Amino acid sequence: xxxxxxxxxxxxxxxxxxxxxxxxxxxxxxxxxxxxxxxxxxxxxxxxxxxxxxxxxxxxxxxxxxxxxxxxxxxxxxxxxxxxxxxxxxxxxxxxxxxxxxxxxxxxxxxxxxxxxxxxxxxxxxxxxxxxxxxxxxxxxxxxxxxxxxxxxxxxxxxxxxxxxxxxxxxxxxxxxxxxxxxxxxxxxxxxxxxxxxxxxxxxxxxxxxxxxxxxxxxxxxxxxxxxxxxxxxxxxxxxxxxxxxxxxxxxxxxxxxxxxxxxxxxxxxxxxxxxxxxxxxxxxxxxxxxxxxxxxxxxxxxxxxxxxxxxxxxxxxxxxxxxxxxxxxxxxxxxxxxxxxxxx
Length: 345
Fold this sequence. Notes:
alpha/beta, 434 Repressor (Amino-terminal Domain), Rossmann fold, six-stranded parallel β-sheet, six-stranded mixed β-sheet, 12 strands
C-alpha cells in the first residue's frame, strides 16, 4: 500500500508543479468547483496523495467551504445492510442528531478496506465531508495509519484496543458475552455453541475470546464456535452443522438477530422444539426478535441512542472539545421464550 505519511514541507505549489497545473487548478479541484476536467482533478488528487498533502482545515473555514456533511463507509453487501436491523437503528440515531444541526450523512458501501481508505481520502481532500464515522474495526486495522496521517476528524465505533488512538464510542462486549454464557449455564446448559461474525472483525474476536474464557471458567464444553458472515443463510448453514453433531449443543448464542431467526427456522426444520430441545439467544435485540415464535431472548442495548451518541461525539471531535473514548451502557440480557432449561434425556 502507498505510504500516506504527511510531510509538512509540501505546499500547494509542489502539488501544482508535480501535476503540471496551476495553483488555482489545485484549489478548484479541492474545493469541488467547476473549471477542471475529471481527469485533471483525479491527477491532482493522486499527486496530493503521493505527496501527503491536504488543504489546511482553517483555510477551508475562512473560505466559507464548510460542507456540514458527515461521511460513513460500510464494508458490507448492500442487500445485507438493508436487512440488518442494527444498522438501520444505528443510522437513524446518527440522523436524529444530524437533523438537529441541519447536517447530512454521506453513506457509501465499499467492497474492501483499501477502497474505503481511498474513498475517505477523496472525500476529505475534496472538502466533501467535515468528519467521519469509522465502523467494523479489525485487529491491526489497515485504515488507522493512513486516515490518521490524513488528519481526518473521526469517531471510531469499537473497543479502544482496536481503534488505534481515534476517539471511540464502545460497549463492553466481553462482559456481555460472559453474561450470556453464565445465564445459559444457570439454566442448566452444559453444551453451549456460538455462531459468530467474521473472525477478522475485532468485536467478533472480543466476544469469541470472552465466550471461550467463560466456558472454561465454568467447566463447560466451549469448543463449538463457528465464525461466519452475518447473513441469514450463513447463520442457517452454521446452525445446521452444529445440530448434526453427535453431541449437539443444547443452546446457541448468535452474533446478530438475523442469524438467530434463521437458526430458529433450522431447529423447526430438524424437528427440535425451542426452547425445550434448543435454546437460542441473539445479539442486538430488535423488533425481529419480538416477532418470531417463540420470541427470541437477546442481548439488548439502545442502538438508536448509541448512534446518536456517536454523532454527538463526532461533533465534539470536529470542534476540538472531545479527544478521548466513551463507554456506553453494556448490552443486557432480555429473556424471552427462546431460552429455558434443557429437556432431560
